[in-house]
């Protein structure tokens, strides 16, 4: 089953709204189904924009329109409160934004004043020598930084959502990204403990919907609650040729499907994108992904083609729902955000020891290093080379991916021959190396 979370839904709202600020007010740009000439369509995929909290696209009588429209003034649940913007619905299916002076973002510095000016965040340095750091033991430098530290502990205490460092006498605070998971204590409630982007642990919308055990329904978290949407027509729902049709398990195959050897329903012919499939040959596109005909091969990590995994229309190749890892593309502990594995995004975020490794991510891919020289390739560094007459100079390079900072040995050569108790061509050569993260 699958889910969606509020941060992702809000990004969809902002993407479709395309807000422009004018003189302190605001307007929503983009195609307006109510005011422009009707836009013809044969499916909702041909209608511009995206579905949002404020309205859902629909192709009705071959014309694009919005349904499930929220009243004007309604605010999407869980919208950010630190972006200097206030998002509301306009009553026509669109989301519009206006400046909000009381919602400034926080730059995680004690030495700046966070402000909103006409919807734009500003971070103004406070006066020099204002106390800052842990217990107010340090002082602001008048340029927006807390100076005078000699160790990270002078600056503050680390936590699940915040990490302190001291660099050249200046305190640096790094907050875990908004939505970073801390713990999920209650399964199936669409909620979890996570980071708010300002270093605090808060309750967030999360992708752990309650499974209704109905094979003809996709379980998805939307706006903090579980919803059960119809699975793709043709989805098998019981033994024999029984399949889902419009969310109901029927005693026969769905229209357009036939019973294959009395075992499973198969398409009678090549099917359009979004239809259930078993093989690529079943689909007009030539791609069968996640059990539905997909617009392309959709082979990248954190990408999928089913509503169950992406929250988007079946057949559309899109990033999986933020915070999920449905195909284990990111291993057993990592999750996807924005179509990438969090631990493969090229950024040192969360509680990572290095960029994309260590901490909450997988162990660092270590290398053997001696005085800065790579010990796994090239000639043996003189500082690391010695010869011994022994049988058990073990090659311990496998430990490098597990333990950092351990002094071990690496096999370089094995004896070429052994006769009458004598080694020829020298004995085993070893070198001492220290495993570090690179």
UniProtKB/TrEMBL annotation:
| Name of the featured protein | Tryptophan synthase alpha chain
Q: What organism is the protein native to?
A: Polyangium sorediatum
């Amino acid at each position: 089953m699958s889910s969606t979370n509020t941060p992702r839904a809000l990004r969809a709202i902002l993407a479709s709204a395309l807000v422009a600020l004018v003189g302190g007010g605001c307007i929503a740009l983009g195609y307006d189904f109510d005011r422009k000439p009707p836009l013809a369509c044969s499916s909702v995929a041909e209608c511009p924009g995206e579905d949002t909290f404020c309205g859902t696209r629909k192709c009705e009588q071959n014309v694009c329109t919005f349904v499930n429209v929220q009243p004007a003034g309604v605010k999407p649940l869980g919208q950010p409160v630190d972006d200097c913007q206030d998002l509301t619905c306009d009553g026509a299916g669109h989301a519009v934004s206006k400046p909000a002076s009381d919602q400034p973002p926080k730059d995680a510095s004690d030495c700046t004043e966070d402000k909103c000016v006409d919807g734009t965040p500003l971070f103004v340095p406070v006066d020099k020598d204002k106390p800052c750091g842990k217990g107010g033991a340090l002082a602001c430098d008048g340029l927006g930084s807390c100076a005078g530290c000699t160790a990270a502990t002078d600056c503050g205490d680390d936590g699940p959502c915040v990490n302190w460092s001291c660099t050249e006498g200046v305190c640096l605070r790094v907050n875990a990204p908004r939505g970073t998971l801390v713990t999920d204590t209650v399964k199936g409630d669409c909620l979890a403990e996570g980071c708010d982007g300002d270093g605090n642990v808060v309750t967030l919308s999360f992708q752990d919907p309650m499974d209704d055990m109905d094979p003809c329904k996709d379980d998805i978290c939307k706006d903090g609650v579980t919803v059960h949407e119809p699975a793709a027509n043709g989805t098998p729902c019981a033994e024999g040729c029984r399949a889902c049709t419009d969310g109901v398990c029927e005693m026969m195959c769905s229209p357009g499907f036939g019973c294959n050897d009395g075992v499973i329903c198969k398409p009678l012919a090549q099917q359009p994108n979004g239809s259930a499939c078993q093989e690529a040959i079943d689909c007009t596109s030539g791609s069968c992904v996640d059990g539905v005909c997909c617009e392309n091969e959709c082979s990248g990590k954190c990408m999928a083609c089913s509503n169950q995994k992406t929250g988007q229309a079946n057949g559309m190749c899109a990033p999986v729902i933020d915070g999920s890892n449905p195909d284990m593309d990111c291993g057993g502990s990592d999750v996807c955000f924005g179509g990438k594995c969090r631990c493969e995004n090229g950024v040192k975020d969360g509680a990572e020891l290095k960029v994309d490794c260590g901490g909450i991510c997988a162990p660092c891919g270590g290398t053997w290093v001696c005085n800065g020289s790579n010990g796994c390739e090239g000639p043996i560094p003189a500082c690391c080379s010695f010869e011994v007459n022994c049988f058990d100079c073990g090659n311990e390079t496998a430990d490098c991916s597990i333990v950092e900072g351990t002094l071990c040995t690496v096999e370089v050569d094995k004896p070429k021959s052994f006769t009458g108790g004598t080694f020829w061509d020298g004995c085993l050569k070893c070198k001492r190396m220290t495993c570090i993260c690179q």
